[in-house]
């Protein structure tokens, strides 16, 4: 089984993907981890991607697609993959389809996790990190016992510049422009499902697992 998780920043894709992949025995393939792994391994494609990242540029589709193809050729991907944050563009989705078809496989389910923008902005802009020990907090959902100080070491809590409300709104716009055609791509193949991510974490997990298990 091969699944795709779609959804904007702050919607909880990573949390859900890790849980669902473990429950179904799938390889959890997150784009960020894929890039970092290839760079650490010093592969030719990984070093090419590093060049773009070091220059502050987006890694081109063809490089990301190549990294995905190389990762799918490894043995632990044979049992099935949950793609988290990939594909982000229609060309990436088409490339993934072609790669999987060449392996006699396909995307069985594409789950698009969505929540209102106000909820996403609230989730992301509430994040705080300790400047000393890097402990993570949220002003609403996981506050520090010491207010603006870290409950573990007493360090000052800081907000990342890209977590500020106006920046979050801009990130959401960029995401939607980049991924505008991806949902339609999977609708045409009959694999698309819209998931209400404005619910408790356990309810979302149960929804996705129920849908995925019906595909087995």
* Tally of structural domains: 1
Overall pLDDT score: 95
Gross CATH architecture:
3-Layer(aba) Sandwich
Order of helices and strands: EHEHHHEHEHEEEHHEH
State the low-pLDDT regions, or none. none
Strand order of the largest sheet: 2-3-1-4-8
Instruction: Return the CATH class.
Output: Alpha Beta
CATH topology: Rossmann fold
Number of helices: 9
Largest sheet: 5 strands, parallel
| DSSP helix fraction | 40-55%
Categorize the overall geometry. Answer: globular
Percent in strands: 15-25%
User: What is the CA-CA span between the terminal residues?
Assistant: 7 Å
Structural class: alpha/beta
The gyration radius over C-alpha positions equals 18 Å
Strand segment count: 8
Q: Any idea what the CATH superfamily is called?
A: P-loop containing nucleotide triphosphate hydrolases
